[in-house]
Amino acid sequence: IRKNKETLEKYFEGKIYAGLKTGADKFYVIDDKTKKELIEKDKKNISIIKPWLRGKDLKKWAVKWHKLWFLNVHNGCKNIKPVALKDDYPVIYDFLLPFKKELQKRSDQGITCFNHRACAYMDIFDKPKIIYPDCALEMRAVYDDKCFYGTMAMYFLPYDPLILAILNSQLFDWYARMTFASFGDPWNRGRIIFKSIYMRNVPIPKRNNIADNIISLVNKILSISNNADYLDNQDKQSKVKKLE
């Protein structure tokens, strides 16, 4: 397997991205009720309120989202200006103002204590992508077309159905348990570490004549797993197992 010269890092030209580090998730991550209240006060707020995931929300092929939201007071990216919170989003500014002293103490801040630290790849979160955890009992790669943002406990890749198939395959599971570091015995409930130091060197086979068949199977799986009731529906999960 390792004789393949192509690696995950080369395949994506280095585009393996970690989640966001705010240094103050407890202030920037809000529940659904708070999100609705902020939007009711000013509809413009919806433009910087993004759906949010934690590592434990990632399941194999699907997301168990708990309706958490992220206040994306970003520091700008490429040609995008930083969020001027006080001037453009006064309602959210007032919401965060009581926490100003604590926000000032964090090292992960941008041009103001309210802005997040600069992130050169901010635009990837609003695109279709693959998300996987940094550490878990098994690989739990999911396809995301809902523009989720997430914590440092996960990684993001540009979407490619072939890569999604490889990551969720039995062969990758074996390879990861054989070669990646882990907390405990990876063959006996130990958690495998999927950080980029290991993932970037995963061998990727050259595209061949079975690629289209694999993509077709992935699309069939996603048509089942993207339903809201998938994680609670044993019949649908059984169908996905057969497709795997």
Overall description:
The structure is a single chain. The chain is an alpha+beta fold. 33% of the residues lie in helices and 16% in strands. The protein is built from eleven helices and 13 strands. It has helices spanning 8-11, 25-28, 32-41, 85-88, 90-96, 100-105, 161-167, 170-179, 196-199, 211-225, 234-243; strands at 17-18, 29-30, 49-53, 58-59, 62-63, 68-71, 129-133, 135-136, 142-144, 149-150, 154-158, 182-183, 191-193. The strands form four sheets. A four-stranded antiparallel sheet has the order 1-11-7-9, with no helix packed on it. A hairpin with a 7-residue loop joins strand 12 and strand 13 (191-193). The longest helix has 15 residues, at 211-225. The radius of gyration is 20 Å and the shape is globular. The two termini are 20 Å apart.
